[in-house]
Amino acid sequence: MRYVTLWTALLLASAAALLTPPAWAEPPPPSVEAPVPALGRAWPVGVRPPVLRGWEPPATVYGPGHRGVDLAAPPGAPVRAVAAGRVLFAGRVAGRGVVSVALTGTDLRTTYEPVRPSVGKGDEVAAGEVVGSVEAPGSHCGPTPCVHWGLLRGETYLNPLSLLPPWLLTRGPSRLLPVTPR
């Protein structure tokens, strides 16, 4: 009887080994530490809106912090997709309009709120395309109207400003200097 049990255990172990793909065959899980590509081509609102409150990552999952960036924007202003993607959600959450876009070719998604959506779930959007308009001031930014812009990889919030290339983050227009003869 002991040989039958041993034989059954060996048979089950062999079957499990055959059915389990090798570690090299599986893609590695996405790393939260992976760098965020600067693939943004437009600000969500305006040309370079004032940042009312910046990114303040929490120390723990449920800890205090600010999981995005608040950008000043008047009610009714167009809200644009920062980069190309597919709309994952467009609707209301806790009484506020929210639009979430999965960015093309990445494991990242952006969120915008409070926004009156002009897109629907599944819509493809281009960088700079309008996805909605800023709703009237709510409780998030107090009396000042704003758009809360978030960035997530999986369930982890990241700094959305890291999506923008340096030339979009600088203040003022580019200036060319005169060429002086030597």
Characterise this structure.
The protein is α+β, with helices and mostly antiparallel strands. It has helices spanning 2-19, 166-169; strands at 51-53, 69-72, 78-80, 85-93, 96-103, 108-113, 115-117, 124-125, 130-134, 146-153, 156-158. The protein has a domain at 51-55 and 66-169: Glucose Permease (Domain IIA). It is built from two helices and eleven strands. The termini are far apart. The model is unreliable at 15-31 (pLDDT under 50).
Tags for this model:
182 residues, alpha+beta, Glucose Permease (Domain IIA), three-stranded antiparallel beta sheet, 12% helix
Q: How do the strands and helices of this protein lay out in sequence?
A:
Elements: H1 2-19, E1 51-53, E2 69-72, E3 78-80, E4 85-93, E5 96-103, E6 108-113, E7 115-117, E8 124-125, E9 130-134, E10 146-153, E11 156-158, H2 166-169
Antiparallel strand pairs: 1-2, 2-10, 3-9, 4-5, 4-8, 5-6, 6-10, 7-9, 10-11
Structure in a nutshell:
The protein is an alpha+beta fold and 182 residues long. The protein is 12% helix and 30% strand.
Radius of gyration: 24 Å
The first-level CATH class name of the domain at 51-55 and 66-169: Mainly Beta
- In terms of DSSP E residues, the strand content is 25-35%
**What is the second-level CATH architecture of the domain at 51-55 and 66-169?**
Distorted Sandwich
**Sequence stretches where pLDDT stays below 50 over 5 or more residues:** 15-31
CATH fold-type name of the domain at 51-55 and 66-169: Glucose Permease (Domain IIA)
Shape: globular
The number of helical segments is 2
Count of individual beta strands: 11
